[in-house]
Amino acid sequence: MIPSPLRFVAVALASLVTLTACDDDDGPTGGSGRASLRITNQAARTILFVYFSPCNDPTWGEDRLGDAVIAPGASFTWTELPAGCYDLRADLDDDRTSQDFEVQLRAGQRYEWRPAASSFVRQSIATRTAPGVALRKATAHTGATF
Fold first, then answer.
1. Is CB count within 10 Å lower at the N or C end of the chain?
2. HSE, side-chain direction, 13 A CA sphere, residue 1
3. Per residue in 111-120, pLDDT tens?
């Protein structure tokens, strides 16, 4: 039998290992690992704006490309992102947009999003805003835009 103080330490360490192993990275603050996101433009038009934010955030936030753009066939990569659940959006230079919801960025891995030309749809006038301005998500996580 293990002496009482050592048994306490053994149980505490076992609990710590169990809690660490159960971390499922269910949100950008849910895990301590880092991930990367790569977007490859498969459309014939240029991607001017990219937005991504935690799944539980009701806004898209600011444009993540800054002064950059993603030309047809080109890619752009973000590294050192907190692992977790994200919603993604890319806007083309002709007012069409593509969205992907509840994407899991896993610690130590790179997620590749390749929005095809057919995945871009016209934005309704009601959802358009000035370029680069924070937008509200108009979705119920079904991929449908209201």
1. N
2. 3
3. 999 998 889 9
